[in-house]
Amino acid sequence: MVNVIKHPLITHKLTQMRKAETGTKDFRQNLDEIAGLMAYEITRDLPLKPVRVTTPVAPCDTYELAKPIILVPILRAGLGMVNGICTLIPIAKVAHIGLYRDEQTLQPHTYFEKYPKNIKDATVIIVDPMLATGGSAIAAIDMVKKQGAQDIRLANLVAAPEGVQAVEEAHPDVDIYLAALDDHLDAHGYIVPGLGDCGDRIFGTK
Ligand code: PRP
Ligand code: URA
């Protein structure tokens, strides 16, 4: 399932990020804010379990989250979405997957992985602003599945149709959440119109 999250605030903030003249500070801040807004939608169907608590007035039969939540940013650019989501889900644990895309072959290369213990029982949300060829996302999903993850969601800011199709073919069980589905990939594997190199724009590199 692909869910393009439509909200005027997300659209406005993403427009600021797309502008070539937007600097590091505003780019980072808008990404942080969009990630928080997306988190609301990504977590809409999380399972709840019944609990009884005692309010200052009386016992109360209510609900709380049934499963732990693990966020998995794909380094580097995925880091830009962590704070925004953790603001909404402060109980989330955070794994890290280090991947970079070879600029010539566009193939993903892994350089780091670190996971919390309970990944098998958790809702795992992989975050990366860009879904281009899909190679990095597919590799990250392969990696969390190897750790035992069963309930996996993928959250991207901007995707190309080619990347969405590749992820859906490789991992049809993973739901994809996007802020925008763009037009196509260019010859260098960049999303068009996209927003350029997201990692470089977040961290002010290159
Ligand atoms: C970017 C982006 C994704 C990947 C998407 O990362 O953040 O991880 O490319 O491309 P794909 O769908 O074709 O795999 P990059 O490799 O540039 O690394 P960085 O985040 O360290 O800049
Ligand atoms: N990675 C990016 O940062 N931007 C793109 O357009 C494609 C991959």
List keywords for this structure.
nine-stranded mixed sheet; alpha/beta; binds 1-O-pyrophosphono-5-O-phosphono-alpha-D-ribofuranose; binds uracil; 206 residues; two-stranded antiparallel sheet; globular
What does this structure look like?
Strands 1, 4, 5, 6, 7, 8, 9, 10 and 11 form a 9-stranded mixed sheet that branches. Strands 2-3 form a two-stranded antiparallel sheet. A two-stranded antiparallel ribbon has the order 12-13. It is α/β, with parallel strands linked by helices. Helices cover 32% and strands 32% of the residues. It has 6 helices and 13 strands. The chain is globular, with a radius of gyration of 17 Å. Helix 1 (8-18) runs antiparallel to helix 2 (24-42) and helix 2 (24-42) crosses helix 3 (82-88). The structure holds 1-O-pyrophosphono-5-O-phosphono-alpha-D-ribofuranose (PRP) and uracil. Residues 130, 132, 189-191, 194, 197-199 line the site of uracil. Pathway: Pyrimidine metabolism; UMP biosynthesis via salvage pathway; UMP from uracil: step 1/1. Catalyzes the conversion of uracil and 5-phospho-alpha-D-ribose 1-diphosphate (PRPP) to UMP and diphosphate. Keywords: Allosteric enzyme, Glycosyltransferase, GTP-binding, Magnesium, Nucleotide-binding, Transferase.
Rough outline = globular
Model regions low in confidence, pLDDT < 50 over at least 5 residues: none
Query: Helical region count?
Result: 6
Average pLDDT metric: 97
Number of strands: 13
What amount of the residues lies in strands? 25-35%
**Backbone structural class:** alpha/beta
Give the proportion of residues in helices.
25-40%
Element pattern in H and E = EHHEEEHEEEEEHEHEEEH
Bound small-molecule species: 1-O-pyrophosphono-5-O-phosphono-alpha-D-ribofuranose, uracil
- How would a crystallographer describe the biggest sheet? 9 strands, mixed
Terminal Cα separation, in Å? 35 Å
Computed over alpha carbons, the radius of gyration is 17 Å
Cofactor: Mg(2+)
Catalytic activity: UMP + diphosphate = 5-phospho-alpha-D-ribose 1-diphosphate + uracil
Protein name: Uracil phosphoribosyltransferase
GO molecular function: uracil phosphoribosyltransferase activity
